[in-house]
Task: structure prediction
Amino acid sequence: MKNNKLVKAIFLDRDGTIIKDKGDIATPAQVELYPFAAPALRQLQQAGFLLFIITNQSGIAKKVITEKEVNRVNHYLVDLLKKKGVNIESVYYCPHEKEDQCKCRKPGPYFIYQARQAYGLSLPHCFVVGDHPSDMLLANNSGTTGIYVLTGHGKKHQDEIPEGIKVCKDLKYAARFILENKEEY
Result:
């Protein structure tokens, strides 16, 4: 029997969207969750969205942080969110610099396509939420809907985002927009 249920997801940038952007975060002690993040993510999860994190971590290629440190920080964040009732399905990160021209760096859709394959996602019913123009290009490149937040680097790069992108103050307001408009997507 074929499952015809639409599987929807939210792809979230990490630094500047869920946690404060402090540059290359090497230890769990540097992780500072935005106070609105867990409640917003819980609401999205309760509405049936799977949650994923996609993050560029070029500090690895630059040898500023190690892959082990990035993994430790990601595991800490996932555990922290789990304690607050939020389940992150998977964390995808690109360890390369822009100049490496890899297939996994945002705005390339590689990780979203991996998630689609693994979880049976319906990309037209999925969202990318982030604070950088590359997140919005990722949404365009993957056939998902982008929501730009003004936390992190958001205000700095707001004039660089593609036309037609929804702009929200932060993840709380992005979640509200998604929940109020989910029937349209």
